[in-house]
Amino acid sequence: MLIGLGGLSTGLSALDNNRPATALPIQAPDLSRCATSTSPLVINCCPPSNQTIIQFQLPPSSSPIRVRPAAHLVDAAYISRYTRAVQLMKQLPANDPRNFMQQANVHCAYCNAAYEQVGITPRTQIQVHGSWLFFPWHRLYLYFYERILGNLIGEPTFTLPFWNWDAPDGMRMPSMYTANPATSSIFDRLRDANHQPPKLMDLDFGHTKPIDDSDQLIQNNLSTMTYTDPDWLNASFLFYDENRNLVRAKVGDALSISQLRYAYQDVPIPWMNARPTPKRPKGSRASNDLKKKAVKAADAFPRSLNNGLIRLIVKRPIINKSRTKKEKEEQPEVLVIEEIELDAGETVKFDVLVNDDDESTMPDKSEFAGSFVNVSHRHEGMEGEMKINTSLRLGITDLLEDLGVEDDDELVVTIVPRIGTQNVIIGEVKIELLS
Description:
Elements: E1 2-6, E2 11-13, E3 37-38, E4 42-43, E5 53-55, E6 66-68, H1 76-91, H2 100-111, H3 134-152, H4 219-222, H5 230-233, E7 236-240, E8 246-250, E9 262-264, H6 288-292, E10 295-296, E11 303-304, E12 310-315, H7 325-330, E13 333-343, E14 348-354, E15 368-374, E16 387-395, H8 397-403, E17 410-419, E18 425-426, E19 428-433
Parallel strand pairs: 5-8, 6-9, 10-12
Antiparallel strand pairs: 1-15, 2-16, 3-4, 7-8, 11-18, 12-17, 13-16, 13-19, 14-15, 14-17
Helix pairs in contact: 1-3
């Protein structure tokens, strides 16, 4: 699974490496052709398939907005309703598509290659991880799961809690998931006790030093990820609703949470009002010594990360250096790392720095542009090496302001290998405006 960790303007990992070569939208699968999944365990997570499919309809615009609460702020009454709903879901007959395990199977099938793409030859699996379907599919999946829970307790406005882990009070596993192990329907004995309250959660999946949460914002990136490509908008999936109906929903149905009639509790997030600080005085350009250590990006690629860090001189696009705030928002400047070739089954991480010669720089400094992360995810058909080719886009508009180098014509970009980069090849690094 690819993850782009970037700054506050834009931090995108291109998630379109699995687009079908035929340039057709992925269609809802034929459930009768569902196959055994591997994850890597052999699992049959195929759903019931002998039902008529109905088309998803957005809820009426007049229906109330359902507010998802922060998990660490919910009260005893909410926990009682939530655990009751999950308990009822687990007690449904095993062949009921709303059953807890059946709902888990929905995720298993789409994320572990149980389905083939309809009408595509040769055989091509549907895999919503590591593709541009990741965000909309999971949004729809949780939407239907949430609706089923609400229906089971007769509460149509019920919402799932969200984990507010990027605020100090939410940085521990929500206690409701670890309480009452003998009776709670949401307790899981497989959760690692070493990470349960009162311990802070270790979200350092890259196995490096602790990182600043501001590096992991997703919501600010979504505005730049609303594609207009019909292959994306018309990609469709099958889910079961609260009435056991088999429903076909499209990516285009999931673009707006307000149209889905839900929102998130407004909670304080202190870091959003804080910005990284530069290591050197504002306006300090890349030193001549640093530039001497770098090579021109145009002459450097393709390049392997097997031999350590890569330091490049990258030209900026020709733009008005005194752009207004509105112009910057409409066309943010992005650092693009393209043709990143790697094995999807390996965990990979590298960091990206700008105008900095210290490879230990962390996200609390303005020179830290972001990270590329691939979390190992193997499934059927991936027993050996599986090469993928992807890209990373990191917003540097704020970074340039913080460093005071908006008038510079070129930047020194350093790519620092962290985890599993020995077989990673990079094809190009450039800076462009994102329209």
